[in-house]
Write a structure and sequence with these properties.
alpha+beta; single chain; Alpha-D-Glucose-1,6-Bisphosphate, Chain A, domain 4; seven-stranded antiparallel sheet; 4 helices
Amino acid sequence: MTLKTGLALLLSCVGPIVGQKEPPPRTKSYPNTREFKVSCDTVWPVAVQALTSNGWGVRASDHAGGILTLEWTRGETAGSYKKINPLVDEYAIKNRTGFWTREYYGFAIVSAQVIAIPKGDACSYTITVVYRGLAVRTGGVRSWETLPSNGSFEDRMLSEIEGKLSR
C-alpha cells in the first residue's frame, strides 16, 4: 500500500467520526404547569407556603395579577464534576456544543417565576425555574452559564401544592 492510498483510507475512516455532530442530550422532561380544581385565591397562600418552605424567598408578589417572583435562599453547590453533574442531570438540561461534553463544577438554583391564571372555577399554575452551571471547557476556562430546566423541580413543587390542597 502506498502512502497516498493509506492516507486516503485513514481519512475515509476518521473523517466521518470527526465531522459528526454530537446528538442532542437525552433528558427526561416534566410538566411545569398544573390545573387545580379550585380558585386561584385558594391556591395562592398554599403555593406561597409550599414554595417558601422549600427554599424560595419571595422577591416580588402580585396576588391580583397572579405573578410571584422568587429567589433561591439556600446558596449554590460546588465540588467535583462527579458530585455536580448528577444535580445538573436531575434538574436541568446540559448544554452541549461541538464535540465535547462540558463538565460542571458548580450548580446554582437562581430564581423562579410563578404565573397563576384563572380558568373558570379552576386555576392554572405554571412554575419556571432558572439554573446556572459552572462549566469547565477545554483549556480549563470556567464560566457560569444558564441551564434550561427539565421541569423536575417545578413538577415536584406543583405536586406538593396539589397534595396540600387535597387535605
